Amino acid sequence: TAKQIDRILAGLRRMVTPGEAEIQPIRDAIHLAFAENFDREGSGSGLWAPLAERTVLERLELGYPGTNPILIRSGEYADTWINQEAPGHGSEIEAEAGAWRIAEGSDDPRAPALEFGGPRLPARPVADLSDWQADAIAADVERVLDRLMGMEAAQ
């Protein structure tokens, strides 16, 4: 019917120029996945390597817990991943011709070395998501698209 076509066309227009209401739930789902990785001290590629003995001793000397949580001392580094208002949080959002690109992460200068490792530093990736985390984000994307297309109301 004409009403259904109008609703679909309106949804398509909203898809081309998504607003904060459409983008924020997806960003939140990504941040949640990063927070889960910090909580479980691992990522889609497995558990992070334990801290080196010298790192444990340094942490204790500075008044932080020894072996855990890995990658968390003051919480500032984790915040750069999970809190979009934190200094050092990285976020890029693009919408062009109906295609969206939402990139979340950390702009912290330590992030590349911690994500990919180095000569004496094992990789401890935060951005590497598990299949179930990716599926949860995809489900949020589907819900947003359904809402944009007016499918929730029609079902």
Q: What is the element string, with H for helices and E for strands? A: HHEEHHEEHHH
Beta content: 5-15%
Separation of the first and last Cα atoms: 16 Å
Helix content: 40-55%
Query: Can you give the mean pLDDT?
Result: 89
Low-confidence stretches: none
Give me the count of strands.
4
Tell me the strand order in the biggest sheet: 1-2
- Rg calculated over all Cα atoms: 20 Å
Description of the molecule:
The protein is 52% helix and 13% strand. It has 155 residues and is an alpha+beta fold. The relative contact order is 0.19. The protein contains seven helices and four strands; from the N terminus they run ααββααββααα. The chain starts with a helix and ends with a helix. The radius of gyration is 20 Å and the shape is elongated. The chain has a two-stranded antiparallel ribbon with strand order 1-2. A two-stranded antiparallel sheet has the order 3-4. The chain has helices spanning 2-16, 20-40, 53-61, 76-82, 111-116, 131-148, 151-154, and strands at 42-43, 46-47, 89-96, 99-106. A hairpin with a 2-residue loop joins β1 (42-43) and β2 (46-47). The model has no long low-confidence stretch (mean pLDDT 89).
